[in-house]
Amino acid sequence: MDTIILKTENLSKSFKGQKIVEDLSLTIPRNTVYGLLGPNGAGKSTTLKMMTGMLRPSTGKILFNGHEWNRNDLDDIGVLIETPPLYENLTARENLKVRTIALGLPASRIDEVLRIVDLTNTGKKRAGQFSLGMKQRLGIAIALLNYPKLLILDEPTNGLDPIGIQELRKLIRSFPELGITVILSSHILSEVEQVVDEIGIIAGGKLGYQGAAPQGQELEALFMQVVSASRKAGN
Prior knowledge:
The protein has seven helices and eleven strands. The protein is an alpha/beta fold and about 240 residues long.
């Protein structure tokens, strides 16, 4: 089996003549947690939206599982970008039931994903009454319903308290053992370094570093070096 699950080749996206992502070539190893890092506005969310078909690339290619990406590949990709898509008047189980019916999945999958994200005991509590951390975990449960090989998470710890962050960190770290590769986007270095295997740092829409994730001050120094170089190039 190919050790690479997803690659981008010279991926670019422009809006009204302005390049948001430029010649981005990422390599995502299978069964790892890959951190896509960069300051706000670096092009992270735009890149993830191209990987999930929400946006069409202006130029370049996305390769998934050894072939050029097409919409059928969404069957193997789970996504949580921005706010979890919840029906706040429904329970966790009811939210998942709506999706299993729509996707033609077995009802048994509901208990499986609730167990994975540790939401089996929420009972009749409606999603609107959940803490932010619980909502994020339910959003991930929804993304897991279709047995994805790749899970894409955009800034999943935003707004979470320390307990919620710790729970989500543990959950994300467990996915490679289940055969799920994770692409995790964030600008919070201290959170990412504790869960990722490899990183890509982008700034100004361009890739400044890709490889093993250094720790602590080394990661911070590398991040600032990439961002600083990008800003100088833009002046």
